[in-house]
Amino acid sequence: QLQLVESGGGLVQPGGSLRLSCTASGFTSDYYATAWFRQAPGKEREGVSCISSRGGVTNYADSVKGRFTISRDNVKNTVYLQMNSLKPEDTAVYYCAAARRRLCVLSSGQYNYWGQGTQVTVSS
């Protein structure tokens, strides 16, 4: 059974860093584009970043460009999101998602496999 599990969330002060991990099981991840989405209370889910199935192409939301970096290790079936210079407005539940496609898009409707989410809270 295909499964995605996120980890690495937590409480961090403004300006701090966190690294999220998304580990896949039940499928070979190098056939799947993977994305990170986030949802803050009272707001719609938004795309944060995504990476192509082999890792050669990445996309970022304007709000995180220059601060977040997505990467993947297909040997470990894991996608990472390194988040630096965190701001209070980055507070949200972060979800990873996968789709059997080569290139990625920041559109939640294109993904049919989702993790359970991990909470990121940026606060002093």
Beta strand count: 11
> How does the major sheet shape up?
7 strands, mixed
Radius of gyration: 13 Å
What gross morphology would you assign?
A: globular
List unreliable stretches of 5+ residues: none
Structural class: mainly beta
In terms of DSSP E residues, the strand content is: over 45%
Distance between the termini: 40 Å
Mean pLDDT: 96
- Compressed to H and E, one letter per element, the order equals EEEEEEEEEEE
Relative helix content: under 10%
Please, how many helices? 0
Question: What's the SSE blueprint?
Answer:
Blueprint: E1 3-7, E2 10-12, E3 18-25, E4 33-39, E5 46-51, E6 58-60, E7 68-73, E8 78-83, E9 92-99, E10 113-114, E11 118-122
Parallel strand pairs: 2-11
Antiparallel strand pairs: 1-3, 3-8, 4-5, 4-9, 5-6, 7-8, 9-10, 9-11
Describe this structure in words.
This protein is mainly beta and 124 residues long. Helix content is 0%, strand content 48%. The chain has no helices and eleven strands. The strands form two sheets. Strands 2, 4, 5, 6, 9, 10 and 11 form a seven-stranded mixed β-sheet that branches. The mean pLDDT is 96.
What's the gist of this structure?
By secondary structure, this protein is mainly β.
Highlighted features:
single chain; 124 residues; mainly beta; 7-stranded mixed beta sheet; 4-stranded antiparallel beta sheet; 48% strand; globular
